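Reviewers asked in the last cycle whether our approach scales beyond single polypeptides. To address this, we selected a multi-component target totalling 486 residues and predicted its structure end to end. The input consisted of the following lines:
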Amino acid sequence: MKKNLLTKEMQIFIDSLGDGVAVVNKGGTIIMSNHALVDMLGYQDKDSVEGHPILKLLGAIDERGQVIDKKNAAFVRTIRYRKQISNEKRQFIKQSGARFWASITTSPMIRDQKVIAAVVMIRDISEERQQEAYYKDFTHTASHNLRSPLGNLLWTTEYLLTQKPGPLNVKQAEFISDIYESLQAMNRMVNNLLSISRLENKKVHPNLQKVSVELTVHSVIKDLANYARVQQVEIEIKNEDKFEHLVKFDQDHLHYILQNILENAIRYSSQNKKIILEIRADKNDTIFSCTNEGIGIPKDKKEFVFAKFFRAKNAEEAQNEGTGLGMYTSRELANVNKAKLWFDSEENKQTTFYLQLKSF
Amino acid sequence: MEKKKILVVEDDKFSFKLYTHLLTEAGYEVASTPRASEAFDLAKQFNPDLVIADLMLQDGNGFDVIKKLRQTEQFKNTPIITLSNLGQDADKKEALKVGADKYFVKSNTRFQEIIATIEEMLKAKE
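The resulting structure, written as structure tokens, was:
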């Protein structure tokens, strides 16, 4: 079978690849391999690999720590559905018993319109994983350690502004207020980084409970009332008399997402315009929406709105506040609560953000 | 009228100075220690009406300090506030479980809110 599958030139080509390659027949036996795979798994020669069942040889475990059975193996799905499976993450086992992280891509090998085998490509990603873990840990530790001096500075400036230690002249009061605002912005950034770090480490487990959307909306409006006043923007709740929507959500997460949506709506609204909040529901879902009239989101930047640290140029020009982390965090929080967050926007006209939640 | 007494367990120098100053100015008598190992003996001697404790201390952790205080009859009903930089739900749950009454992340709380909470807790205790 091996000879029939590949020409000598193809075998040379495959052996020259840096990633591990195996050709697996329908029964799951490795019928061909390359040197990189043999090295990756810690064997001496191809004979130790070829002729063996791939599942047994690799001992695959998925990202949740579950052993991959035949039904869920990537090569089986590739053969059954005649499609490529790309970049699934696995932990494989070496001959020594040590485990390593790998990315696996499988493609069907088709001859005379029949799938005769699957080509399995394996890339060792242990180093990437380590770097990722280091980065996540670093973000968490760094953000955490920033909180202590930040807390002290916030409290000290807040205290100075009370003028209890002594009167401040107008300029001094103005500068200390500026310092206070900058510290608050920095604190928001640190809180966002910590939330992201926890989300990325899968440490966020939503406390799903019966939550009232309207109560949360009113609490968020109360928190942002002063900001809306300063920005000269009015907030209107449409069809409020019909409000009584209970959803299955983590209370703190819902507050965070709604606050972030509304805060952005206020920040990027034109002055003397209204922000319209609306809640609609059917028996399965509740949809919250928030529409503002203002700078909008440029067409070519829409795909980046939920990316980390993204801020559109027109947003930066309009306001120097904003961390570029709020929308990313909100989308992640919506995901862990099994909700959907999306938007429609027209530049220089209006933007509507939607949050679709499971009704309780 | 006799001043109410507050014990502060905090090892960060700046915070230590700041709490002492703000609480003294708010009219409280303050005793403080940066060491977990000294906190219990100081509490016995000072007999505070309320305790403010950090959770991460140089020579130990605030959870153990709170636990030990709660296991002692003298402090069974003494209000305990945790002021920490740890913001995870698990830390908050653990602090409340071992006996803290309130949990605040310092950078997310205004000090005037803490002063108001202290007043409220002391009033409720009377």
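DSSP finds five helices and seven strands in chain B. We regard this as preliminary and will revisit it once experimental data from Aim 1 are available.
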